[in-house]
Here is the input.
Amino acid sequence: MTDYTDKIKEIAKRVLAEGKVDMVIGFRAGTVPMMNQPHYAASAEAVEEMIWDSNCGLNLANYLTDKKGKIGIIAKGCDSRNIVTHVIENKIKRDQLYIIGVPCTGMIDHHKINAMFDKEILKVEESGDQITISGSGFSETVSKQDLLAENCAVCTHRNPVEYDELAGELVDEQADVDQYASVSKVEAMTADEKWDYFDDLLSTCIRCYACRNACPLCYCPTCFVDESRPQWVGKSQDPTDVRTFHLLRAYHCAGRCTDCGACERVCPMGIKIREFTKKLNKDCKELYGWEAGLSLDQRPPLDTFKADDPEEFIK
Amino acid sequence: MQNPYLPYPVRIDEIITETEDKSLKTFKFVFLNPEDEKKFAYESGQFGELSIPGLGEIPIGIASSPTEKGFIKFTVFKTGKVTSYLHSMKEGEIMGVRGPLGHPFPWKTLEGKNIVIIGGGFAFTTLRSSIVSILDPANRSKFGDIHVVYGARTPGMLLYKDELAGWAARDDINMNITVDGTDDPEWKYLKGFVPTITEEKAPPGNDDTYAIVCGPPIMIKFTQPVLDKLGYSHDNIIMSLENRMKCGIGICGRCNIGKDFVCKDGPVFTLSQLNEMPKEY
Amino acid sequence: MKLIKVDKKSLDQGIEKAKSAYRVFGPVKEKSDHDFKLLDKEQLPDLDFQNTRLSPKSVIYPQSQIMFQYSLDESKEDCRIMKEVENVTSPMAVIGVRPCDALSFPIVRRNFDTPEYQDTYWVKAYEATTFVGLACNSACGTCFCTSAGTGPFGEEGLDVLLIAEGNDFYVKPLTEKGESFVQAAGWAGEVESAAASKIEEMKTAAEASITATVDTDKLRDKTTLDLYDAPFWEEEAFSCINCGTCTYVCPTCWCFDVQDETCGKSGIRMRNWDSCMFPLFTHHASGHNPRDVKYQRVRQRFMHKLKYYVDKYDNGIQCVGCGRCIRLCPVNIDIRRICNKMNSFDAESCVCEATSS
Here is the structure.
């Protein structure tokens, strides 16, 4: 995907020069391996810093919330679906945006890669579908497919669903993936096993709220965990409060989550937060045939009512 | 080692509703342990943390004067979770107070000087404390002329109405009580905003005259140019700030303005000091 | 104090032995990362790590800590009277503290232990603790301790320094507390005559392995308002998502919130780590917020560490160069970049427009 960079720069410079946008939101190279930084360019000079590779896993729609003016934005499949969700939820207007679509072949998982090596990784280079990871005294080349973030590995919407221009040829969508394999595994557990599983999953949470803050859906002016009147949830490390935060946040994302994986990517403790959202995505798919952010013309199932809505789960 | 977070237990001795909209009440507290009153030795301008178990703490300026013994008083505006609960509490109930906290007005510097006290709305509490202290027979001779400009939106929104009337009748303090507007035919004081009245009534600035200003941001914003015009040096303009606080002792980290904490290094600053600090209040 | 050398087995046996007199904390690998934990009987610290994911600050200053308890039962005499909870004062020892993290304790102490007020919780825990450090023989790419007032063999803040050499450890007691711990552990063993020069060589090599640096020499001479009004804050803060990662993983971030919680007729007052990245941190009850906008909060964090602290204590920056915030920031805000920007900022020659918004 590194070859998108030149095309992105060319488009960004052009739309800035033509006055179509005031800024273009994209990525610039980070200062540590596998960590690109969201960045905006308002000048051709700033565009030069822009980059595209397999470390652009953050969701840039998160930077659009309530923005004024005309904005260019680089969007892979999931970003574009969250842009659609933002438009549907009135957080930005479609005509404010110039969407530079990036057909995506997946982002690599820095948590997984860091865990593969005992030593510090000093350099990660990408060449086609090969990733070379090196550090002091070691270097290993691995197929990108084996290093994909879990959400990317099961992604079926790699191409942007909404765009003004593409930075590359559309890619084939993955067909033979079981999107919900991880959910099925949990569903098969007994109640006690589930309890233990989620208990362990959240045991390291430090409540930094990186998951919430990296999520384009979490734009509430005051999150329920920050409300003081009434105070819905305690602020300590009490497991009940930690669980309450994660479960309620996941429910707030029901029918809206695009499984972009930003929550997991940003978690400093490597918690698999998608284990919650994924289940709700599966339910939405099975109950309503719904996947979030695919169309500007359809309202999400949880903010509409139809006489034939399924109701077997309400008992 | 003294635990600085441990409040002194107090009993609510009296609750006075101060304003017509009932948004301000004065709470008079008596220490459960008499020795705690000695530990709570304060000067006008300091504040305390009112502590309600189960709800939390709030920093409030001390409205009583060190010359008043046997109790401490705080006038509290009903605004957040803790203050709302406090407003629902009854005389006789037990709660806690921590303090005194922060720096008082610079009383040593102010000795022998003329003082103009300018207050607006419910920010008159530590100014009430100051006036009571100054007017105490043991203290009055330590100061020169005392002018007060105090304004509220309406007569019914003035704090300490009986005391104001008493001070207005004295000849050792020059009271200028004003309201933004009123159609009350009985109103015998001034009408007009605090900055305007200050311009008309305050003495000109000089090395021996200090202004103490407490009020809402909008009042402070418009009073400052008036004091500049009257010739007050920024070293002679004393202000008291508010910021969100928790610990009150400069440790929890949230109320800083630049390197200074409003709780521990303030809340009292001169305008000269504030001019060098970020405007994060 | 006498330098000692022990092999790995004696080191481990000593740690186990010391548990009879100390509650011993050390790095433990859980899932894929190391963090400091209270070691159970027979449980040994895993000293094969570069640095722990979270800093050891939580040993002294837990993320959630109960301060007081009280009853809300009106029929009880002590209803609504705050009672102190039992403070831990039995001796603790933390094994495997890296020198960068060790320096964070004297830094943080300036906040918690002041001439006017002593934070009893922090001070008692600190005084009860013996810090047993582990020198770094090779640095991470994000380590910049040598430009933050310490180094891979730094001793400030430590009571004992361990230096790993092959399968052996040099044990260097630095304080009386450290001496007592060494005795409790029963560590004894002669060192070879060239030990001191050997350690010096290792130290030089370790320092040479540090590739990252920051410049801090000009921070003190800048005026606060020049830096505060510098034009780069909005751009540097653009990617920030205002999470608490940087502050929570930082060994020198000390801010906290106080919360009351009740259950039935009894309750506690507790404190929890807080973060200047959170809007609520400075939000007034009136609705006004002096740091309402994201870049103001980002600016606060860096101004605090690199300017306000520098001015207040005249003792360097409030950063030990451990690099955790660089490694864990989800959006790659890099303190090295910001620090260098601040240090080299010249308000006079800045042709940029004053900060907008």
Remarks:
- The CA atoms of residues 175 and 305 of chain A lie 31 Å apart.
